[in-house]
Amino acid sequence: MRYILLISVLFCFFNWAYSQIADTNTIKQLYDKSLGISEDRVDSILANSAFIEEQSEKLQYSKGQILAKRLRGLASEYSGNYQEAINYYLVTLDLARVEKSREYEIAALSDIAIVYSEIKQPQKAREVYLQCLKIAFEQGEINTTISSYTNIGAIYNQLDQPDSALFFLNNALELSKRYNLKQTLPVIYNNTGNVYFRKKNFTRAIEYFRLNKQFHDSTGNKSDLWYDNLNIADCHLEAGLYDSATHYLDMALEISRQLKSRQKEADSYSLYTKLYEKLGRYKQAYIFQKKWYTLDTALVNETSSKTIAEMQERFNARDREKKNKLLVSEVDREKLKNKNLSLLVLAAFIIALLVGISLLIYRRANLRLQEVNIQIQKQKEKMAILNKEKNTLIGIVSHDLGSPLASIGMWSNLLAKEDNLTTDQQKALERIRASAQDGEKLIRNILEVEKEGSKRERIELEETDIASYLNWMVGEFRDMADAKGIKLEFPQIVSGVFLLTDQAIFRRIIENLVSNAIKYTEPGKSVYVKLVNADDHVELIVEDEGVGIPEAKQNLLFTPYANIGNRTTDGEASSGLGLSIVKRLVNELNGTIQYQRANQGGSVFKVWFGK
Q: Are both 466 and 404 inside the same structural domain?
């Protein structure tokens, strides 16, 4: 009778479970709804993805896997995990191609291109958008074709190729007008205006921004009108038409107040500051900069307060989670104790069941191990969030320090305009400006060092004639060396020493090493820059006749904020961060750097790069 009852219960359960399986329409509706979920509800997107994946397997609905993987990619993108997002989107792309679903293939390609744009890789984004354009042509999808043309045009503008950008944007505009798709015009006009702005053809830029404004005048969207007026004002400002710039800027400010948008009002004040600075009216520029700073600081403080509240809530949640775990652990221990007692009592009677019980315990152990792995993954995600919050706080600090230093620089420029300044007063103003510049440089260096823990440099490798490039770089420092009476020597080398490298990063390495050598070398002595071309590597040597590094401090040489104890020979500013930045940049290029003490007591830095 007991077994009959058990079978009946199981039969009812399976009937109920089968009734809970969603149909394909429900899955599609949930997918469409998930695409509209905001970025702060990543957990909801992941839960919906898991449900779609599970139900699709039960229904044998193969396209459900495409929908589930795309939602997982979207969740990763919202969380800032761009590499994971790209991996999910690539899986989505493969599944869409297997299903021969052009719709989802285009969606996956667009997702990948958007992520590449967000991580500042416009070349890769362009390649993916071109694939979208090809498919749209084949399918005859006019809207997708226009969108692809527009996106490719915007990417070419980012790559500083305005003529190519205009080619694609003009194609988008021609199609939009041919098929009377007015809703696509604003984006095309705005991107075309931005291209002409980059080309410094402000007259043409104004034409397109005004077309955008006419469109938005008809729709009455004040937020769009604010952008239009601000863009037109910026064009007039760059063209030197200050009265027209003031007119459109006044309209933008009025709209921002009607919208009660403090961010838009702050951005308007920022452009006012630029306007009055170009007019030479520094007092007015300072007034508007102060208004911008007050609003912008309030917005930053509001964001900081929200971040602190979220951090406190997460701390409370973790505290509750720990207490719950302790309680569950205590209950588990009691259950295990009772179970062991029962097993001891029944051991003589159910020996045959011991094997089954052992297998059950083994299975539970595996499940617990899986739970531990899940907890570890969650901790990793929490650490990533905390690291992001740390970077946010660093950004806030740099903002709060940078603005006062900028104000000091502006005031010193304003005071320098006075005609009745004595020589001593002029020297004092020059020292004030130099101190403000040193402070801003220190902030940039701190941010540069902290960036090592958050993300790597974006490498753009290209074949470079290192000999010619280095000769040009050394020439940039000759005035600095001559001013101190230092002889800067670089033997002329026949060009043709090529190296696959990132010119921007290589330049920063040279700038730091050569400027340091000049700073710590006495007048009347020499600094040598040498280049050695070997079969499998290139060696860069920077040698000075300066004070050298004490042996006890050499192990701290490439450590951020290390106190080496040396002073510059002419009172130049030094934060102790330059060599740590050089070390990181050399590592980014897969090179090595080494310090040696020169025979005459100075310093020798050797950098190796493999060919």
A: no
